[in-house]
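Entry 14. Structure prediction run on the chain below.
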Amino acid sequence: MSVPLDGNARLAQDWRYLMARREWTRDELIMAFNLYCKIPFGRIHLRNPQVIELASAIGRSPSAVSWKLANFARLDPTLKKRNIAGASHGARSEIEIWDEFNGNWEKLSFESEHLLEKITGHTPPKGKCERQSLERASTRAFSGLLS
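Output returned:
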């Protein structure tokens, strides 16, 4: 005997079906890394409006996007210097994206903003890369200690 599902249970079941596990594409990783660079680590969570917006645009759940951002955080030397850890495990593809774009902010900005425009149909607002600012600030602070 099956039990009829109420509206919330049916919605949850539909959401799980729509958001079935699938591999992240290179384009999705580039857009996620763009977002990682724009928001501070403490704001990486599934209720962040920017996380929700990206999730909606790429057909992922906000939880999946926030986990992907935490996976990028595990690679961030600025966070490691502050004894902050991201996710403990991740994929090789995240390392490849990190290696390709970390420090090449112009290329990341160009490619990711182009991809976002292509899937959303509108030009995303430009945002400065918080990671770039943090790296420069920590480099200046570290250099000041050596002088």
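The helical segments are 7-18, 26-38, 49-58, 62-73, 77-81, 92-101, 105-120, 130-146.
Filed with the rest of this week's runs.
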